[in-house]
UniProtKB/TrEMBL annotation:
It comes from Lysobacter hankyongensis. It comes from the Bacteria. Pfam families: DUF1244. This is DUF1244 domain-containing protein. Signal peptide: none annotated. Gene3D superfamilies: SMc04008-like (1.10.3340.10).
Length: 104
């Protein structure tokens, strides 16, 4: 926490940063494939949706997987996937497997 901000402001700043990341992945970089995010960063849009759902559950809010994904993708995942997600190449799958081994 920044010593110059109170906890509420810190939470608001963190939420704003999260929304900017979500919107960036949703709108400006929908071309970036989830598998590439997993290889390079160890998380993807689906991870963000899971974390969002976990945060809701911690607060007693029931949120199913589809609703959480829609909050991250900006549309139902079933609609987003055919528009933006390509099949992983053999190279991507190999890189993903290697990344999983490095971080296991």
């Amino acid at each position: 926490m920044n010593p110059q901000t109170d906890p509420q402001t810190t939470t608001e700043l963190e939420a704003a940063a999260f929304r900017r990341l979500r919107d960036h992945l949703m709108r400006e970089r929908a071309d970036v494939q989830n598998i590439d995010l997993m290889i390079l960063a160890g998380f993807c849009r689906n991870c963000l949706a899971d974390w969002y759902r976990d945060a809701a559950a911690e607060r007693g809010i029931a949120l199913d997987k589809d609703a959480a994904r829609e909050a991250i993708y900006g549309m139902p995942f079933a609609q987003w996937k055919p528009q933006h997600q390509k099949d992983a190449t053999p190279e991507q799958l190999a890189a993903f497997e290697a990344a999983q081994k490095r971080h296991a």
